[in-house]
């Protein structure tokens, strides 16, 4: 997470009651990893718009997640991302989305 998220990051996954900053996103990511593991992930970009040092990306995704009971869950999801170009890479400034219900 530290390498992917800008210091000013705030994102709002659908399963969160409010937007999460970088520290909160890192904490919930660690919690999710303690309950299982992503074993595969694929992105399907739908549209990417680059305007100077800002990019907007819309994508669908599929993940395979092995839970603590050794069962595989395969949720699909969708995201809208806003990225900012830094000196060395593109970083997420914000996102919205999550697995579809």
Mean pLDDT across all residues, rounded?
93
Shape: globular
Q: Report the uncertain regions.
A: none
| Beta fraction | over 45%
Structural classification: mainly beta
What is the first-to-last residue Cα distance? 25 Å
Helix content: 10-25%
* Largest sheet data: 7 strands, mixed
Question: Gist?
Answer:
By secondary structure, this protein is mostly beta strands. Helices cover 14% and strands 57% of the residues. The chain contains one helix and seven strands; from the N terminus they run E-E-H-E-E-E-E-E.
Q: How would you describe the overall organization of this protein?
A:
By secondary structure, this protein is mostly beta strands. It has 1 helix and 7 strands; from the N terminus they run E-E-H-E-E-E-E-E. The chain has one helix at 22-35; strands at residues 10-13, 20-21, 36-51, 54-67, 72-73, 76-85, 90-99. Strands 1, 2, 3, 4, 5, 6 and 7 form a 7-stranded mixed β-sheet that branches. It is globular.
Per-chain topology:
Layout: E1 10-13, E2 20-21, H1 22-35, E3 36-51, E4 54-67, E5 72-73, E6 76-85, E7 90-99
